[in-house]
Amino acid sequence: MTGPDLHDHPTVADWSDLVRRTAVLVPRAAEVSPRLALGATLRDDVVSPRDLPAVPLSAMDGFAVHLADLEAATGPAGRTAVTLPVVADIPASRGGVAPLAPGSAARIMTGAPVPGGADVVVEVERTDADPHAEAPTTVTIAAGEGLRPGRHIRRPGEEVAAGTVLARPGDRVGPALVALAATLGIPALPVAEPPHVTVLVTGDELVAPDDPEADAPGAVRESNGAMLAAALTLLGAGVDVIRCPDDVAALTAELDAAAARSDLVLTSGGIGHGAYDVVKAALGPTGRGSSTFAHLRLRPGGPQGVGRVRVVGPDGQEAWTPVVHLPGTPVGALVGFHLFVRPLLAPGAAARPVRALVGRAPEPRPGPERPRAAARRPGMFVLPGRLGRADDGSLVVDVLDGRRLAPYGRADALVLADDAMPAPGQGVPVLPL
Ligand SMILES: Nc1nc2c(c(=O)[nH]1)N[C@H]1C(S)=C(S)[C@@H](COP(=O)(O)OP(=O)(O)OC[C@H]3O[C@@H](n4cnc5c(N)ncnc54)[C@H](O)[C@@H]3O)O[C@H]1N2
Ligand code: MOO
């Protein structure tokens, strides 16, 4: 068979492939002001509309002169200094500057436009002028070495020539690109509009954290909605969280409505092996059959699902919104999100594991946290990790001790171990959170 064997507990790699093929997000293009685009992903090249600098600018505080005047001074006569009248004082300010006649000098500040005719700027340190006083009436310049045409003058287009590609599709908009857009007068950047994700949380036992009934027997404070909304927000998505009852008709109605207004739908819970697994009942083989469910060779986060929801637009056009089904167990939902959903929203390096050496790791303990299922079916054992650096700068990860979600309060990485607790000194793949 070509796809993963879903009846034989697919591996994480096979399931990732299936999710990537099933849940394709089509980015919508938008032109957004650079500041609002911060953090967004570019959809197109950003091309400079103009030269930077636009005109020749001084790179030093000093004096603009004609190089020929200085060369004359250092000629066969052996003189090493020349005195020129100072005919202008040019600060970095708006407005044009008059050309400079041969045989004269203009005092000039860093960033100020170089007057026409001048082909060199001599830094003030090389002259007899007091840099903090008024412009002198004459200046004596120590001529000699290091003077050549264009010295200390920033040529037009030297930093950015018109037509230069400053950033490419897939690049994230950062503060430096915001600055380039500002300095080059680029009013808007071509980014992907933030995707909208709806999270449908199932479970009749779930109540809002501040519900007066939250401490009643059997009630569980809902946390997957908050966790997934936070994780999605960090990826730049817009998020809605909706709590659904464990009822097939109500769930499918919410799902259809969510699919119509979202780029991606996530569900939480209801995909286990029990009698009340509403998501599986609604969308699995005995329901609509539009989603695939499997128990992966992964712990925690073994139960997973993926599918598409049919949406008919106002014009009668049919479209499909991807849906990813995460398990209800909070740590299973967290692991499933980072392994399978994050790559859909942050493609490329941001969602790929890196390698680290294990620093500290707790003793493997017997009990429910042991990878029993995984021991029977070799697979991936995910653990909470905290990243650091060794003295030589290499990446080190400590595996945190604790059960289920609790140690993730301090975790900044998922340790993707092979079946068993890794030993200190062992190399492991880690997915930074
Ligand atoms: N017979 C078997 N039972 C289970 C298996 C199995 O292989 N055989 N796998 C277990 C694993 S692993 C997981 S994970 C769960 C997945 O089940 P569901 O996706 O149906 O999750 P629920 O039953 O809805 O909830 C499980 C657990 O998590 C709590 N929960 C659910 N949603 C939330 C939420 N939004 N916020 C906070 N807590 C939530 C819920 O109250 C349950 O305690 O199946 C196992 N069973
Ligand atoms: O896969 Mo479940 O998430 O181990 O608890």
From TrEMBL:
<dbReference type="InterPro" id="IPR036688">
    <property type="entry name" value="MoeA_C_domain_IV_sf"/>
</dbReference>
<keyword id="KW-0808">Transferase</keyword>
<keyword id="KW-0479">Metal-binding</keyword>
<dbReference type="InterPro" id="IPR001453">
    <property type="entry name" value="MoaB/Mog_dom"/>
</dbReference>
<keyword id="KW-0500">Molybdenum</keyword>
<keyword id="KW-0460">Magnesium</keyword>
<protein>
    <recommendedName>
        <fullName>Molybdopterin molybdenumtransferase</fullName>
        <ecNumber>2.10.1.1</ecNumber>
    </recommendedName>
</protein>
<dbReference type="InterPro" id="IPR036425">
    <property type="entry name" value="MoaB/Mog-like_dom_sf"/>
</dbReference>
<dbReference type="InterPro" id="IPR005110">
    <property type="entry name" value="MoeA_linker/N"/>
</dbReference>
<comment type="pathway">
    <text>Cofactor biosynthesis; molybdopterin biosynthesis.</text>
</comment>
<dbReference type="InterPro" id="IPR038987">
    <property type="entry name" value="MoeA-like"/>
</dbReference>
<comment type="function">
    <text>Catalyzes the insertion of molybdate into adenylated molybdopterin with the concomitant release of AMP.</text>
</comment>
<dbReference type="InterPro" id="IPR036135">
    <property type="entry name" value="MoeA_linker/N_sf"/>
</dbReference>
<dbReference type="Pfam" id="PF03453">
    <property type="entry name" value="MoeA_N"/>
</dbReference>
<feature type="domain" description="MoaB/Mog">
    <location>
        <begin position="198"/>
        <end position="347"/>
    </location>
</feature>
<comment type="similarity">
    <text>Belongs to the MoeA family.</text>
</comment>
<keyword id="KW-0501">Molybdenum cofactor biosynthesis</keyword>
<dbReference type="Pfam" id="PF00994">
    <property type="entry name" value="MoCF_biosynth"/>
</dbReference>
